[in-house]
Amino acid sequence: MAVQSADRSSKLNISAALASVSVALILVVLKVWALGATQSLSVAASLADSALDMMMSLAGLMAVIYAARPADEDHAFGHTSVEDLTALAQSVFILISAGVIAWAAIGRLQSDTAAPLMAQGRGIVVMVVSMLLTVALVLWQRRVARRTGSKVVAADSLHYLSDLLPTLGAIAALWISRQFGIGQVDSIIALAAAVMLAYGALSIGKGAWDALMDRSADTKVLEGIAAITRTFPGIRGFHDLKTRTAGSRVFVHIHIELDGDQSLREAHDIGARLRRKILETYPQCDVIIHKDVAGET
User: Fold this and answer.
1) pLDDT band (50, 70, 90) for residue 296
2) How much is the pLDDT for 220?
3) Helix H segments across 68-183?
4) Neighbouring residues of 51: CB distance < 8 A, sequence distance ≥ 6
5) d(CA 38, CA 50)
6) How many folded domains does the chain comprise?
């Protein structure tokens, strides 16, 4: 059952990564056209974000495919840590992108003459289409991330979710420029989008860094595993429950205390049933159970 769950998770992650690359390519083409037509900095901010998303989506796709490879002699615990490395790289690139956009926005705000925007109506149509595509992709990615726990898919989803504010901002800037002739709002919205990008990048980077540093699993997962073990038939107690995360996988080590007078097969069966129960509840886990004699630990 654990293998089937892992295979299913890998397929879901790959489907989300492929959808991400496809949508990113469409968004980049649409926004390049919109930027050429409007000369809007907020559209440029949205385009830069989409171009970055496309690069990161390609990297994410390769990472997800690599992470799906089974364990081998050189990687006994699998290859899922590549997800954390990719997510960390994504966060760095997003921070750089946010800095470039913010610099350009501040430069325009300090300029004596506001840069004129053009073809606002066509730009608005393009940005609305981009927003609808982005919403559809984010909904699918979030569903996949909830089911598989993939940090790459979650990070990619955050990228595209952060696209919505720049896209909405670009629509607002184009509309305000068209209706009232106020061009500076374009730079203000672009600056706000840059701040949001930077915040999201720091969140992604922290999660990836924690995983690379073998930080333990979420407290809810630890408490859930402890609750299952504490009331499991045949187990007198447990200790040394340890976890670490690597990409979308959670590695669990636990010592259970058993009746020392029972047979080895009986002890093995208890451990096997406990492992199956934990995997049924937390399919993203890889569980190793050590068996000790109760009262002699």
Assistant:
1) low
2) 85
3) 81-110, 120-148, 151-180
4) 28
5) 17
6) 2
Burial of 253 (0-12, 13-18, 19+ CB in 10 A): middle
What share of residues in the chain are helix, strand, coil (percent, to 5)?
A: 70, 10, 20
Looking at the structure, tell me whether residues 165 and 238 fall in a common domain: no
Cα–Cα distance for residue pair 191/205, rounded to 1 Å: 21
Give the domain CATH number at 202: 1.20.1510.10
Rounded-to-integer distance, Cα 171 and Cα 164, Å: 10
- Average pLDDT, rounded, for the chain: 75
pLDDT digits (tens, 9 = 90+) for 228-246: 999 899 898 898 888 877 6
pLDDT digits (tens, 9 = 90+) for 14-71: 777 788 888 888 888 887 887 777 767 667 767 776 777 777 677 667 666 665 566 5
Q: Tell me which residue range forms the domain holding 280.
A: 219-293
Are residue 66 and residue 147 in the same domain, yes or no?
A: yes
Can you name the residues that pair with 160 across neighbouring β-strands?
A: none
Please state whether 149 falls in left (phi above 0), alpha (psi between -120 and 50) or beta. Answer: left
The reply to whether 35 and 151 lie within a common domain is yes
CATH number, domain containing residue 227: 3.30.70.1350
Residues paired with 91 in a beta bridge: none
pTM score, whole prediction = 0.53
